[in-house]
Design goal:
Layout (H helix, E strand, L loop, with lengths): L2 H10 L6 E5 L2 E4 L10 E2 L5 E4 L3 E4 L10 E2 L11 E3 L10 E3 L6 H7 L5 H10 L2
Parallel strand pairs: 3-6
Antiparallel strand pairs: 1-2, 4-5, 7-8
Length: 126
């Protein structure tokens, strides 16, 4: 869906909306209640993005360990904001659609963002 459509959904949402940027004005959105929706966020995740839309291990993952990824690496929608209580040492407290602009996250994740956000980051660095 378009950014405008997703922004309307985020503004009206009663709960979480699972979406991934795929282009400047295109987003994949899982319908509410989808079985694989509501993956878990972490500010120090054990998963990150590999090419092109594959979550891969960022580090060794212990058996039974919760799988997490940083939602900031997959959404650049200004209206997205989520409280975080992941309890990581560097927990940001709030995850936003503007977090791709943070230099600390750019350094931490390198090229491990969705392609759409990588394009934004690279354009912003010029």
């Amino acid at each position: 869906m378009s950014t405008a459509e997703l922004s309307r959904i985020l503004s009206a949402a009663d709960g979480y909306v699972d979406a991934i940027n795929v282009d400047e004005d295109a987003h994949l959105v899982l319908p509410a209640g989808t079985a694989n929706g509501k993956g878990n966020h972490g500010c120090d995740p054990n998963l990150w993005w590999g090419p092109p839309y594959t979550l891969v291990a960022r580090r060794e993952i212990a058996a039974g360990e919760e799988l997490t990824n940083d939602y900031a690496t997959s959404t650049g929608v200004r209206e997205f904001e989520m409280s975080c209580r992941c309890e990581a040492a560097g927990c940001r407290g709030v995850v936003t659609g503007e977090d791709w602009r943070r230099l600390d996250l750019r350094e931490r994740y390198g090229d491990h963002w969705t392609p759409a956000l990588l394009r934004l980051i690279r354009a912003d660095q010029r």
